[in-house]
Amino acid sequence: MKGKAPAKRGLGGPNKSKSNGDSFFNPDTKRRRKGGFRDDDIESGESDQENGYPGSDASSGHGDEDEEIDEYADETAAEKKVRLGKEALQNLMAIEKKRAEEDDGEVEEGKGYEKEGERDSLVARKLMKEQLEESGRLRRDVASRVQKPETGDGFRYLVKHTHPVTAVCLSDDELRGFSASKDGSIVSWDIESGKSERYKWPTDKILKSHGAKDPEGRATKHSKSVLALAVSPDGRYLASGGSDRHIHLWDTRTREHVQAFPGHRGAVSCLAFRHGTSELFSGSFDRSIKIWNVADRTYISTLFGHQSDVLNVDCLRKERVLAVGRDRTMQFFKVPEESRVIFRSSTSALESCCLIDYEDFFSGSDDGSVELRTVQRKKPVDCIRDAHAMPSDIRDEEKDNRKPSNEEAIWQHQELAMVGFVNSMAFAKSGKFLVVGIGKEPRLGRWGKISDAQNGVVIHRLKLSEEDVSKF
């Protein structure tokens, strides 16, 4: 007898008819959920005993607990999210109601509804503020709340360096800061006490095992001079870049070197982490900007466009990068779209940039001017000429009538005295303080020197008025 021929596998074979009878291909997801399908990817954070699953102590009980289990047994992920959101809203409203009763005591008759309306509006504003903070779109007015400093309020030295400080940065929790100098020293310090700890560079053998390449050109060993620092949003990693053309990754918990990223053909001049992610942007004298994934310790891509040294980069939460360079341009890169917008300066090189949001940003140039720009316009919205007065001859230290340098002018505007080159600044996100890296020499060269200055990191506390929550 002839056996049955094996079924052919193909588009017209049994697989096609199988989809008609197999429940896996049944589009009726609602019926499957009612049949007891449970989403295992969602964790409530509660133990089996608390939820009353079989085998637990709670599963042996009866009454209300069983009814509650049955009530949420067929709940979908979306339904659970809505339920938890309502519970969180009710808890927040209860807290605000209790607080209002403690502040006002007994509410007069006829004013209860007004109080409830004000409380509901306050809760709505707080929820909106939390949502904007999580999405990185919260814009807070800090400058208008800064109070005029009193006599005696000024800078206080936190950390002293042997050589000029080239970079400073702050952790997101505003508890620790990091600084680096021209001699390659990297220091972490406590914001309140100023207690510092130094990072130790590994040997060349360890550097090579971590990915570093041999020095190029006439260099016989890796230069330790650091020009840029950036700390990851989670505070776990510290990235440094400098004259050796590498980005070095450090573990902030152990202060040990963990990875070296080669790839740039020039000194690494600036670094910036994308908010809320492990993506790192690096700018270099090789006119390029590279993107790295610190968590995976991998290279992602390179952005081109500048015709000279890239001096500074800044970014927020989205994949948008703002960069300035010696080619007198500021370029706004849209990474996913692979496009960019170019803004040109007709007079001098742009040395600094800062994003306010995804539409507005600042730029600073080496002629002492500060410009406010927007993506919608190629020309500046506003410009402050000579915001930082240019020196007549910074090398001539014997002249008593020397004009204040561009680095000193901002402190005179705040009625604060500061001597030295301001090579790096970092504002706390809360707006409560400012840290500044001071040096006897400028960050990217040795064409000037102020002998009276002291190399180190200083901090200035800012007094802020109460924040108006009604703006959110």
TrEMBL record:
Its main location: nucleus. Residues 108-118 have a biased composition (Basic and acidic residues). Keywords: Nucleus, Repeat, WD repeat. Residues 40-49, 64-76 have a biased composition (Acidic residues). It comes from the Eukaryota. GO terms for molecular function: U3 snoRNA binding. InterPro entries: Rrp9-like, WD40/YVTN_repeat-like_dom_sf, WD40_PAC1, WD40_repeat_CS, WD40_repeat_dom_sf, WD40_rpt. Residues 1-78, 96-118 are annotated as: Disordered. One of its GO terms (cellular component) is small-subunit processome. Pfam families: WD40. The keyword Ligase does not apply. WD repeats lie at residues 158-199, 219-260, 261-302. Gene3D superfamilies: YVTN repeat-like/Quinoprotein amine dehydrogenase. This is U3 snoRNP-associated protein-like EMB2271. It comes from Linum tenue. The lineage of its organism: Eukaryota, Viridiplantae, Streptophyta, Embryophyta, Tracheophyta.
